[in-house]
Amino acid sequence: MRIEKCYFCSGPVYPGHGVMFVRNDCKSFRFCKSKCHRNFKKKRNPRKTRWTKAFRKATGKELTVDNSLEFEKRRNIPVKYNRGLWDKTVEAMKRVEEIKRKRQARFIMNRLKKSKQLDKEAAITEVKKNIHLIKAPHAGKAKQMEAKMVQKLQEDVDMADEEN
């Protein structure tokens, strides 16, 4: 038994599930649900439909170039059954799935870090642009006036010392 991929959304199509459409030129298309089949019949592009895996990969929201994705490719080479080989294959599949999950999580975290940095920069520019709303126009003037008064008093004291 083989788990096929949906032609439209790239989701899994388990045996006995979904719809299969065969075109006049004998090309077969498998769909996981009627939603995918309907969109295919309406000639919609999966790369422009926001909920598909193709859209997520095209817009950079999902990992596209990775060696662990090579293992998902379909192989049509018949192999004689061997229990040891079967066990090794199952273990390797589990390991590859674990590696892929970790890499995808790291990819998502890196993507989120970039957006946090952009949000921070946008907030800083917003504050710089509208600083007059936050800071009162004469807020720094009081300290300046106080510094001037201290300076004048100091000068007056110095002049009084010079006269005596």
Q: Give the tally of β-strands.
A: 4
Helix share, percent: 40-55%
The helix tally amounts to 5
Query: What class, by secondary structure content?
Result: mainly alpha
**Overall geometry:** elongated
Note the main sheet: 2 strands, antiparallel
Give the percentage of residues in beta strands: 5-15%
Strands across the major sheet, in which order? Answer: 1-2
Instruction: Give the termini separation.
Output: 110 Å
Q: Quote the average pLDDT.
A: 87
List low-pLDDT spans: none
Q: N-to-C SSE series?
A: EEEEHHHHH
Rg from Cα: 34 Å
Give the SSE layout.
Elements: E1 4-5, E2 12-13, E3 19-22, E4 28-31, H1 34-41, H2 53-58, H3 83-129, H4 131-134, H5 141-163
Antiparallel strand pairs: 1-2, 3-4
Task: Give a verbal description of the structure.
The chain is mostly helical and 164 residues long. The protein has 5 helices and 4 strands; from the N terminus they run ββββααααα. Helices cover 54% and strands 7% of the residues. The strands form 2 sheets. The chain has a two-stranded antiparallel sheet with strand order 1-2. The longest helix is centred in the middle third of the chain and has 47 residues, at 83-129. The protein has helices spanning 34-41, 53-58, 83-129, 131-134, 141-163; strands at 4-5, 12-13, 19-22, 28-31.
